[in-house]
Each structure stands twice: as C-alpha cells, then as structure tokens.
Amino acid sequence: MRHRRAGVHLSRPSAHRKALFSNLVAALLTNERIQTTDAKAKETRRLAERTITWARRVGDILTKKADRRTPDESARVVHAVRMARRVVRDRGAVTKLFDDIAPRFLDRRGGYTRIVKIGQRPGDAAPMSLLELMPDDTAKAAPAGGKTDKSDKGTPAAEGKTKKAAAKAEGAAKAEGGARKKAPAAKAEGAAEKAPAKKKPKKDE
Known about the structure:
By secondary structure, the chain is mainly alpha-helical. The protein has helices at 14-31, 38-57, 59-62, 71-85, 91-104, 156-194, and strands at residues 33-37, 113-120, 127-133.
C-alpha cells in the first residue's frame, strides 16, 4: 500500500519523472500556458504552486533594491531561489518567476494556476488539459467610479435621453398650440361658407 507517498509514477523511472516535471514547470513559468494530459497537468500544478509560493513569500523583499536589503532579507531571497531551483532547472524561468510572476501574485494566497479540460488527444484518445497561470487581477479591476447604471440621472446617456425627451415634448406642445390656434379660424371660415347669402330687399318699381 502506498501510504504517505504523494505523486504519480506515470510508468517512468524517478530520474525521468523528475526531469519531465521540471521541464513542464519551467515551460509553464516561461509561457504561462501549456497543454498536456490530465495526469501530468495535475501533478505539474502541485509542483508549480509550491514553487510560486516560495517566490511569493519574499515578494515584498524583491520590491526593494539589492543594496537596500538587510542581510537577513538577502538570505531569505537566496534561500527561496535555491528552493525554487530544486524543482525548476531553467535559470530563465526562475528569473521570470521572481521578477514578474511573484509580484503579480503578492496578494493571492494560493490558487495560482487553473486546469481547463480541452477534450481527447487524436490517436490514443488521452484526456488533454490546458494548464495556465491565473490572469492578473489588477488588469481587470473596475474603474474608480464603479459600475455605471443606465438609470442614473448623472450619466451622459441619461442626460442625452432627457434632452431628447424634452425636445420631443416641446415640439408636441408647439404643434398642439398651433392646431388650437388654427381650429377657431377654420371653424369660422366653415361657418361663413355654410351660412346662406342674405337676399337683398326688392325696391318698389
């Protein structure tokens, strides 16, 4: 029984398996998105999140310049880099992890990646997944004014609608007033036309 033995074997020897996951984590940190099988994606996610956590814990120190750090802070950064290098062998990926990815997830406590299932692989029908880093939350932050409501009276759209409605009402009032003025005159003309002409009295011959 495999008590207290985490991880999958994937029918590979330990050296091959470690190199495989090291390359997958490095590719994820470099490209921020990889496509692999479900089993590999789940195991890579476990190792990647642990590696990102090492960098995130010293994220506040990384914002300082190297000459501004105390000896204790410099030792913490060196220790975090060495722990990350235990999983990721690529120096470029580690550099990007500490310079770009760690500050991005400074306010996030876990959950740095997500897995999206994309179907089966042609040929052997292996279930495939897309493993990617979570998008930056600050890029999608709402504007300072918050959500705009169409029903708000102060918005430009509402003001435009109000002006249009006022113009329509004013035009209707003018048209109605003109019709009222024309109506009595038309009635008078009609009455004059309908009234019979008065006969002139005949003069005695």
